[in-house]
């Protein structure tokens, strides 16, 4: 029996994954499933560089705008919901195209990871947030290191929400979160496509251009609006472009510093994403800056044809 195929388009931010996914979907008869831990949130549009409404109307897109920023959302929930979407796409004899830069989401959905389902422990979370408020994120991160050094190596110490979740699962289950994750066989095969820069300077320039466009599209105003609506919730305080402008809105930094911090943190994010995906030996890599017009999509289509 031949297994159905999923196309995965992954890589660091600002490498053209969205544009490529739309072209591929149009060519091979596909629909797109977002694989991004920030675009799942409603109201966070400009700052997360979601596809435009025009782009989303041209090809069906899923797993955008799933929950509000003040609602907790886990990778286990993402896997369950995205799997249901994927099965629906298969039932229509179309190809799911999973597109995004959140490595853990991609692994959970496309590598058969079984994620422990642990209900939120609100009292424990409050205690852990109090620890971070009192002693800093590093103290909270040190608690994770003591419980699960493997998970600590893939998390940012300032990503308080995910650090707390890893601690929570480890404590509730009585063993490290990393040991609670297992693998199962998948009812589909994956063709992995990765986009990356031929050198880091080109990616920094692309990030700078996109940030300028985000500012033009009203990034600061969006942050003000979502912050006013939802307050200092964990999602906003752990999301690049939102954290930095919230500091500006709160009067902690001036506007220029906030902009510089955004660029710095976007570049740091891109480095972490590159490191994460480099560990996946199945990825067919393409240097996004080495192609003109439709050359990239054609080269990727050739690779997909050979792999199918």
CATH topology of the largest domain: Rossmann fold
Topology, number of strands:
8
Return the CATH architecture of the largest domain. Answer: 3-Layer(aba) Sandwich
CATH H-level name of the largest domain... which superfamily? P-loop containing nucleotide triphosphate hydrolases
**How are the strands ordered across the major sheet?**
3-2-4-1-7-8
Question: Which shape, going by the Cα principal axes?
Answer: globular
Largest sheet: 6 strands, parallel
CATH class of the largest domain: Alpha Beta
Which strand-content bin applies to the residues?
A: 5-15%
Describe the secondary-structure layout.
Blueprint: E1 5-10, H1 17-28, E2 30-34, H2 53-58, E3 61-62, H3 75-91, E4 95-99, H4 103-110, E5 113-114, H5 122-135, H6 137-147, H7 149-152, H8 160-173, H9 177-180, E6 182-183, E7 189-196, H10 200-216, H11 219-230, H12 234-237, H13 242-249, H14 255-278, E8 284-287, H15 295-307
Parallel strand pairs: 1-4, 1-7, 2-3, 2-4, 7-8
Antiparallel strand pairs: 5-6
Helix pairs in contact: 1-15, 3-4, 5-6, 5-8, 6-8, 10-14, 11-13, 13-14
């Amino acid at each position: 029996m031949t297994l159905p195929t999923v196309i995965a388009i992954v890589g660091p931010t600002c490498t053209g994954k969205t544009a490529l996914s739309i072209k591929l979907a149009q060519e091979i008869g596909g629909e797109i499933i977002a694989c991004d831990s920030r675009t799942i949130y409603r109201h966070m549009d400009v700052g997360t560089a979601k596809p435009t409404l025009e782009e989303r109307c041209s090809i069906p897109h899923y797993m955008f705008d799933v929950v509000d920023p003040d609602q907790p959302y886990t990778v286990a929930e993402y896997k369950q919901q995205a799997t249901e979407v994927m099965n629906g796409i298969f039932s229509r004899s179309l190809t799911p195209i999973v597109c995004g830069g959140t490595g853990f989401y991609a692994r959970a959905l496309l590598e058969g990871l079984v994620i422990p389902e642990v209900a939120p422990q609100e009292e424990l979370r409050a205690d852990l947030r109090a620890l971070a408020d009192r002693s800093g994120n590093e103290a909270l991160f040190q608690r994770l290191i003591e419980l699960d050094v493997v998970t600590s190596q893939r998390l940012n110490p300032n990503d308080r929400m995910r650090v707390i979740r890893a601690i929570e699962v480890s404590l509730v289950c009585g063993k490290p979160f990393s040991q609670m994750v297992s693998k199962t066989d998948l009812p589909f095969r994956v063709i992995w496509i990765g986009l990356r820069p031929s050198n880091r300077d080109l990616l920094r320039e692309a990030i700078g251009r996109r940030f300028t466009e985000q500012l033009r599209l009203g990034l600061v105003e969006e942050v003000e609006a979502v912050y006013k609506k939802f307050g200092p919730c964990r999602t906003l305080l752990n999301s690049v472009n939102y954290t930095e402008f919230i500091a500006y809105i709160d009067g902690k930094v001036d506007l220029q510093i906030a902009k510089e911090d955004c660029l710095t943190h976007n570049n740091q994010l891109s480095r972490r994403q590159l490191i994460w995906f480099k560990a996946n030996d199945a990825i067919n890599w393409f240097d996004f800056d080495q192609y003109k017009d439709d050359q990239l999509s054609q080269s990727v289509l050739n690779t997909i044809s050979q792999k199918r």
